Amino acid sequence: MAQKPERLADGSYYQLFTYRGRYYLDQASFRHYPFMSVSLPVAIEVDDVDGGLTYRRLRLEPDIRNSGMGLYARIIGWLKQGWSSAEYRHHYASNFGLGGPESDYSLILFEISFGTSAWASFWRLLLPLAVLMAMVLLVFKVRPDEQDARASIPVTVLLTLVFLQQTYRDELPILPFLTFLDQVYVVAYVVTLVAFILVIWIGRRYADMEAMEEGPARSNLHQRLEDLDNSWPLVVVAFSGTAIAFSWMLIPAGT
Q1: How far apart, in Å, do the first and last CA atoms of the chain sit?
Q2: Does CATH place domain 119-249 in 3.40.47.10?
Q3: CB under 8 Å to 102, separation ≥6 — which residues?
Q4: Using a CB cutoff of 8 Å and minimum separation of 24, what contacts does 223-228 make?
Q5: What is the distance between the alpha carbons of residues 58 and 95, in angstroms, rounded to a whole number?
Q6: What one-character DSSP code corresponds to residue 4?
Q7: Is there a contact between 120 and 36 (Cβ–Cβ < 8 Å)?
Q8: Does the model's pTM come out above 0.85?
Q9: 2-48 pLDDT tens trace
Q10: Helix H or strand E segment including 108
């Protein structure tokens, strides 16, 4: 919708345009998901049919002072981070068959930035994962003679990880790369797999120890197994924290 141009006291003209519609965004990056932001651009450029409204003849200047975001400029589940507007010189590598040099046009670009809530993302996506990893941390606190209980914990965690990952992946488009949350789940899969392997290996060592006679060899083996049980949580926390930190830092800049 557009109002008729009004001539102002300084001789300039004022005209108000209102746009309402559904827009398609094809430049969103999900590499930082679930801690991400998107910009919704609206580009305004003249529709020059006769070639008389090129950059030298017509300049579009945004009114920064009287511009802003409307009351309904929001997306459910996203937080508004701000807006910006600027004029650009849009160069076309063509004269559109009108003769003469290649065409330049004045372009105004309005952008509104939205971001996800880090607090909500943590409670919705990362807290369930943290609870599962806590179960893996405590797997070796189960008594060694309860081998079945020990072995069942990594298996249960693995199945739950697959379910949780599939749940949030259904909200995303098909991507040619791993998001940050995907990489966190890769770390969780590795830790769970290592925990399962250690459960089997330690169970075999305890079985071997039961068959050994009392003596220094049995005492040394028992002490090594206890040391492994006690050091497991610290090793997991150190490895997971380092891997997740590197995953975040290695995300390509500008994406």
Answers
A1: 35
A2: no
A3: 91, 92, 93, 94, 95
A4: 225/144, 228/140, 228/198, 228/202
A5: 17
A6: P
A7: no
A8: no
A9: 578 888 888 887 877 776 777 676 667 789 999 988 888 888 888 87
A10: strand 104-115
